[in-house]
Write a structure and sequence with these properties.
5 helices, DUF11_rpt, Chlamydia_OmcB, 3 domains, DUF7507 domain-containing protein, Ig-like_fold, nine-stranded mixed β-sheet, signal, single chain, Immunoglobulin-like, alpha+beta
């Protein structure tokens, strides 16, 4: 599309060049230096606005128009006196359906500076419906501000209602189960070609519920803030992050207007998958009342093993099981454990004490809990239980029994001796005691011994005599 260039533009540039030469000549002869360029802002009363909402004037010397689906914007530097006071550049900021854009005159396409129409002016042609939100200019001279003097709106501007959405969450990292994330949503009406508001604005999030907005009706260019809260779950921790998607929507008349989809990611603590196991043994003896219920085993006794497995990590563990080679197969009440929960397990069959166990003096076995976290295999630290054989070499009671039996026998013999003598005397009576007990006893014994000897000698004498006859 062709653009009209002001006929006096070449002459203005010629005068500007001549002025520059004159300034150079003045500097050569020692004149005062030229005033430095300054930056000024647009009159704040001129923004924000769309071209269709501003003063309309279509000037062939200032951008021309009207054009189909394009707006012309014209800026003026009041009180300027080119070539000493004029625009050097004009930079504007516009809100568009795709975001904020900036354009600088005269470097942007379809833009120009005009300095031969009284005051210094600038124009630019842009897509229809954009909203001017601010502008600055670099100028020579002492002007304090500039203005948007008029626009030439598109001949048939296309109405484009739209919403934009941005999203963020806090805290955004290091989260654990039970923590609360607050999500903040910013909804902006980015409609073009209209001044009508979008109403009934809401925000939907695939993870967060109960989102509320400060305002639910927005004019073009206006924004509102919405908030929602979410409580982190164990599943989120297991995943390592929370990625959720939100979208705003509203009504433009009877038309539903959706926003872009906004995504935000928060990260959780590094998943920790771990198990612990506690193990117990109970001895069931066949000898019943004849054996002590002391926890020791003997050959043929049955040992029943039970276990308690606990999830000590931060993630849910599945396929929970117990591996105990000595006890054999083990069954558990639950095979899925959430963080902090436990399950009880037991060996399917009791272990029967063998002759080899008796020779070793004890039964020792070790168990581990296992499970799955995704593709990861989780294994607990080992738990070992030892059952000693009754009266075996690892029966710690033997040392106690030996000392106890020795003392018991000593005391028993002492007491039993006293009682036996007492009872014997009672049954057989006591010998009569005359004079000294010791002397009498020896004398009586000696006499009996002598008499016995004489009788023995006489008997032998008779046998020899008989044999010679």
């Amino acid at each position: 599309m062709s653009r009209l260039v002001p006929s006096g533009r070449a002459g203005a540039w010629g005068r500007l060049a001549a002025g520059a030469l004159l300034a150079g000549a003045m500097l050569t002869v020692g004149a005062s230096p030229a005033m430095a360029d300054t930056v000024i802002s647009i009159n704040p009363e001129n923004v924000p606005t769309t071209a269709a909402d501003f003063t309309q004037k279509c000037d062939p010397n200032l951008g021309g128009g009207p054009y189909e689906n394009e707006d012309v914007w014209v800026f003026n530097l009041p009180g300027s006196n080119p070539p000493t006071d004029e625009f050097v550049t004009v930079t504007g900021t516009w809100s568009t359906p795709s975001g904020t854009v900036t354009r600088t005159i005269p470097t942007a396409q379809d833009s120009a500076l005009v300095n031969n129409m009284g005051t210094s002016k600038a124009w630019i042609v842009l897509p229809a419906g954009w909203t001017l939100t601010g502008a600055t200019a670099v100028v020579t001279g002492t002007e304090r501000f500039f203005v948007l003097t008029h626009t030439c709106a598109a001949s048939n501007p296309q109405v484009r209602p739209s919403l934009s959405l941005t999203k963020k969450g806090a805290p955004a990292s290091g989260l654990k189960a039970g923590d609360v994330v607050t999500y903040t949503y910013t909804v902006t009406n980015t409609s073009t070609g209209t001044t009508s508001s979008i109403t009934g604005i809401t925000v939907a999030d695939d993870t967060v519920t109960g989102i509320t907005c400060v305002a639910t009706s927005l004019a073009p260019g206006a924004s509102t803030t919405c908030t929602g809260k979410y409580t982190v779950t164990a599943a989120d921790v297991a995943a390592g992050k929370i990625v959720n998607v939100a979208q705003a929507s509203g009504l433009f008349g009877q038309q539903t207007v959706p926003s872009n989809k906004a995504t935000f990611t928060v990260t959780t603590q590094k998943p920790q998958a771990s198990l612990s196991i506690d193990k117990k043994a109970r001895v069931d003896s066949d000898c019943r009342e004849k054996c002590e219920n002391d926890g020791f085993a003997a050959k043929g006794d049955k040992i029943h093993y039970t276990y308690r497995v606990t999830n000590t990590g931060t993630v849910t563990i599945t396929d929970v099981a117990v591996n105990d080679p000595t006890a054999g197969p083990v069954v558990c009440n639950s095979t899925t454990l959430a963080p902090g929960t436990s399950t009880d397990c037991h060996a399917v069959k009791p272990y029967v004490v063998t002759h080899s166990d008796v020779k070793r003096g004890k039964v020792v076995n070790t168990a581990r809990a296992t499970g799955k976290f995704g593709s990861q295999t989780v294994v607990s630290d080992p738990a070992t239980v030892t059952v000693c054989i009754r009266h075996g070499k690892h029966d710690h009671r033997k040392d106690h029994d030996k000392g106890h039996d020795k003392d018991h026998d000593k005391d028993h013999d002492k007491d039993h001796g006293k009682d036996h003598d007492k009872d014997h005397d009672k049954d057989h009576g006591k010998l009569p005691v005359t004079g000294d007990d010791t002397g009498g006893t020896l004398a009586l014994g000696g006499g009996l011994l002598a008499a016995g000897s004489l009788l023995l000698g006489a008997s032998r004498f008779r046998r020899r005599a008989g044999s010679t006859l």
